[in-house]
Amino acid sequence: xxxxxxxxxxxxxxxxxxxxxxxxxxxxxxxxxxxxxxxxxxxxxxxxxxxxxxxxxxxxxxxxxxxxxxxxxxxxxxxxxxxxxxxxxxxxxxxxxxxxxxxxxxxxxxxxxxxxxxxxxxxxxxxxxxxxxxxxxxxxxxxxxxxxxxxxxxxxxxxxxxxxxxxxxxxxxxxxxxx
Length: 179
What we know:
mainly alpha, 2 domains, globular
């Protein structure tokens, strides 16, 4: 009987150790998620609304995706979108002018779906200038060599690594670094 008790005790110890490892891993995931939330609060930027599954405005998608992905509105605050839409004649070195009606429709869509939790005093014109972008794409997370890859070219080419960027889904599980 004593022999079987030792086997059971060892089995129990192994099971408890395995359970502890699993709980530690789960806690680490929770801590990482908490750290990301806290970090977003500290830098004053939180994209707010999740755009995945949201119906996109057809005019916005058609006009903006002619040259780049139609960036989801929740990546910037409303004031940034207003500034961008007011300067389409000089849109990052290109003339992206629209009719007044198109501009009004697209601006309304962008503003009404913009980040609703942005607390930073800035309203950057480039998503890549935002503190949360810089934090998520720092040299610990993304090797500087990635930006030099001809398939990536620049940090503004979200679709090069985020396979579902065109749908507003930037889930880290769907990232594929180009080779």
